[in-house]
Amino acid sequence: MNQLVLTLNVAPRFTFDNLIVHEGIEAAVSAVRSVYEEPERPLPPLFLFGGPGTGKTHILKATASLVDSARGQRDGASRFFSLGGTSEEGTSLDTFAAQADNESARFCCVAVDDIHLLSPEQSAHLWGLSNKATRRGSPLLLASGLSIQEVFRDNPHMESRVKAGLVFQLAPPEDNVRMLILDKMARDRNVRVSRDVCSYLVTRKSRNLRELSRLLEILDHESLVQKRRITLPLIKTLERDGFV
C-alpha cells in the first residue's frame, strides 16, 4: 500500500523584506521602494522587463503589496493579473477593465504580469484601464519579458504613457545568488537543503529559477515518498530513474 504524502507547503509571500537583492535588480528595488511607499503623491506607472528568472514577478507583487499597505484601506485593494499563468483575481483582465469603468469600482493599483503576452484586444482594454487609473492617481504596474517598444509597437499612446513612468531592465543573478534564492525556496517549503545540493542544482541542472523551483518540488515529494533527506545521492538516484 502506497503511503499518502501530505505536503505542508506555505505559499510564499512576495514582499521586499524576503527578496534577495542582487546587482541585477538593486537599482530597480531601491527606486521602487522610495517611490511607491509614499501614500499621498500620484504614483507613476512601472514597467519591469527582463528574461526568465530575473525577479520580475516578485518585484511586481511586492510593489503592489507596498501600494496596498499605503493606500489600500482608502482607495481599495490592489489587483493582480497574470497573462501567462494564474491570476489572483476571480475575473480576467478584460472583465476587470470593463468593470473599472464603474465609478464605484475601487483599487489602489493594478499589476499585470507577462504583459508581453497581451493580445490586441487586451491592449485596448489596458489603455482604457490606464486612463481610469491615471485619473485616480493609481499606478499601473507591468512586468514583461520584452521591452516597451516591443510590447506596445501597435499602441504608441500606451508606449508613451508607460515610458513616462519608471522603467527598469532586470538582469539575472550570479550563481552564488541563485544558490541563496534556491535555499530560500526550500525554506519556504519547510525543506532543508545543503549548500552542496544547491550548488549542484544551479551549476549542473538549471540556472532558470522557475525550473529550479520545479526541481525542488520533485525532490521534496520524492524525499517524502522515499523517506530520505534531499542529498546528492538522492538526486543521483532520481537522475538515473529519469525524475530530474
Describe the structure.
Mean pLDDT is 88; it is low at 1-8. The protein has helices at residues 26-36, 56-75, 93-99, 120-136, 148-151, 156-163, 175-188, 195-205, 209-226, 232-240, and strands at 46-49, 79-82, 110-113, 140-144, 166-169. The radius of gyration is 20 Å and the shape is elongated. It has a 5-stranded parallel β-sheet. It is an alpha/beta fold. The two termini are 25 Å apart. It is built from 10 helices and 5 strands, in the order H-E-H-E-H-E-H-E-H-H-E-H-H-H-H. The protein folds into 2 domains: 26-169, Rossmann fold; 175-240.
Topology:
Blueprint: H1 26-36, E1 46-49, H2 56-75, E2 79-82, H3 93-99, E3 110-113, H4 120-136, E4 140-144, H5 148-151, H6 156-163, E5 166-169, H7 175-188, H8 195-205, H9 209-226, H10 232-240
Parallel strand pairs: 1-4, 1-5, 2-3, 3-4
**How many helices does DSSP assign?**
10
Tell me, what's the shape?
Answer: elongated
Order of helices and strands: HEHEHEHEHHEHHHH
Give the fraction of residues assigned to helices: 40-55%
CATH H-level superfamily title of the largest domain: P-loop containing nucleotide triphosphate hydrolases
> Which stretches are poorly predicted, pLDDT < 50 over at least 5 residues?
1-8
Structural class: alpha/beta
In what range is the share of β-strand residues? Answer: 5-15%
